Write a sequence for this structure.
């Protein structure tokens, strides 16, 4: 147990050290640089921290501009507001570039584009569609109206502050308007359509923007580019916020802990279970969690384990499997209103089917093993069958070894009573069964037994 806790503490230290690591690229010999970061996937607290770190690096090294390549379906309202606030207070110009072709800046992504000093999009991209959507039951009309009006006001403020069209920014929220890159440019929400990064930098050159430090004229032609990637821990934690990965961590963590509870002490399954559940709940902090769904999953797993420890497969196992499936499907469908900046997410139905099928297969296997054990003869029956059986020693018995008794190989112990040691190949007879070990004597062949019977009377005095 002590060793397991030491192992967990080492992993925790590695995580904490990793959280403190930051890639702080330095400008080459004091020359100006263009910093480029990439935000892909759901907007969450990790992406907010990533932007703050990139901005701090860019300001410290006096970068010409910070370019954010963006491809997101949306994200948490709190994380989005942290990021827009950081961009509004930035002393380095921030450019949001929706790229590559096929990317989107939906929901929270629209607000990030509105907050940037310059908004750009690649051909074949889209933005908008930031309206409150119910992920569970129908939204309360008053709550939905409040959420929509609050988001619309934020969009208008950001657009007006950056000199963009506040009316279309509001429509993107209240009417769920989604726009292509051309439509967004025509409606005054983005300034540039760029094929690639070189085209973007060429179009940025000479453009004047207003930052927290004052008016800045961009000089981007011929300037070197420095990539600012997520560090190792940021990448790991960003990956686990994938709803499917978080679901896998939850289910695997539950099963690992239940396996640990079946064994004495504290070992690897317990450590894996704790780490998996901790990571799962870290991910749930960035996802729209339905606590009822989570409760059904936990209860379903418990019922399935109870069924596995019971004979047969009946109502308990069926109820557990149904609860597990229903909980999995409703895990990310909260019944309360969600932020208009967050996309609708769910567990992949194929993943639910695979986990449910695997769970059912394991339970059926466990039940079949239990039934087989129940149908096996009792120890007392085995003992009665084996006592008196003759076999052959396969190793020297000194005094423990192995012997072939019938068609089975057994661990045996010689019950020596002054006789010579039993060697491999000697005949033995079972005299008792002690647990899973047999106690044996040397077996006498019929001829020896007959001779002993005849000579025994003549050896006695007066015979």
């Amino acid at each position: 147990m002590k060793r397991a806790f030491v192992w967990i503490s080492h992993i925790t230290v590695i995580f904490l050290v990793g959280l403190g690591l930051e890639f702080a690229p330095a400008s080459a010999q004091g020359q100006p640089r263009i910093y480029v970061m990439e935000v892909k996937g759901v907007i969450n607290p990790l992406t907010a921290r990533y932007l703050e770190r990139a901005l701090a690096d860019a300001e410290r090294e006096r970068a010409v501009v910070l370019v954010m390549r963006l491809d997101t379906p949306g994200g948490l309202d709190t994380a989005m507001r942290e990021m827009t606030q950081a961009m509004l207070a930035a002393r380095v110009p921030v450019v949001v570039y929706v790229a590559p072709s096929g990317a989107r800046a939906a929901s929270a992504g629209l607000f990030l584009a509105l907050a940037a000093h310059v908004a750009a999009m690649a051909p074949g991209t889209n933005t908008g569609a930031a309206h409150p959507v119910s992920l569970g039951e129908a939204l309360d009309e008053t709550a939905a109206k409040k959420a929509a009006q609050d988001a619309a006001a934020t969009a208008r403020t950001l657009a007006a502050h950056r000199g963009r069209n506040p009316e279309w920014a509001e429509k993107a929220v209240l009417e769920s308007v989604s726009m292509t890159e051309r439509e967004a440019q025509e409606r005054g929400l983005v300034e540039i359509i760029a094929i690639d990064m070189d085209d973007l930098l060429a179009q940025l050159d000479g453009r004047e923007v207003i930052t927290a430090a004052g008016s800045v004229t961009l000089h981007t032609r011929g300037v070197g580019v420095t990539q600012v990637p997520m560090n190792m821990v940021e990448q790991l934690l960003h990956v686990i916020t994938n709803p499917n990965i978080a679901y896998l961590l939850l289910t695997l963590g539950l099963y690992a802990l239940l396996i640990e509870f079946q064994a004495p002490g504290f070992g690897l399954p317990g450590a894996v279970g704790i780490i998996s559940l901790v990571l799962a709940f870290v991910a749930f902090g960035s996802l729209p969690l339905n606590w009822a769904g989570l409760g059904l999953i936990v209860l379903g797993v418990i019922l399935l384990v109870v069924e596995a420890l019971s004979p047969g497969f009946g109502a308990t196992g069926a109820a557990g499997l149904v609860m597990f499936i229903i909980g999995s499907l409703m895990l990310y469908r909260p019944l309360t209103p969600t932020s208009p900046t967050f996309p609708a997410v769910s567990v992949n139905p194929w993943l639910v089917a695979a986990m449910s099928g695997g769970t059912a297969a394991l339970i059926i296997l466990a039940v079949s093993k239990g039934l087989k054990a129940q149908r096996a003869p009792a120890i007392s029956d085995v003992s009665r069958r084996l006592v008196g059986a003759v076999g052959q020693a396969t190793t020297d018995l000194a005094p423990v070894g192995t012997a072939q008794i019938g068609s089975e190989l057994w661990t045996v112990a010689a019950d020596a009573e002054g006789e010579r040691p039993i060697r491999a190949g000697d005949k033995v007879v079972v005299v008792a069964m002690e647990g899973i070990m047999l106690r044996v004597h040397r077996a006498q062949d019929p001829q020896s037994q007959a001779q002993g019977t005849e000579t025994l009377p003549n050896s006695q005095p007066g015979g």
